[in-house]
Amino acid sequence: MKNTKICPKCNSTDIYVTEGMIAGEFKNVILCSFLSAVPVDRYICGTCGYVEHWVDKKHLNEIKKSKEVKKI
User: Fold this and answer.
1) Gap between the Cα atoms of 41 and 22, Å rounded
2) N or C: which end of the chain has fewer CB within 10 A?
């Protein structure tokens, strides 16, 4: 949905976004350590409710190095 602006489940174009934040208040984040968090943007379909979570590529190394996030 982030790139296409179309819901992959119902093909709606009624898409909303809530951006991840770190400073100010903690919401939409992945905790990487006690003092470190990565913001997560959420894209929501206003028709069916499907949600996608996206992390900016510049934060991927933080997630890979985190002991709180497990690789499967």
Assistant:
1) 11
2) C
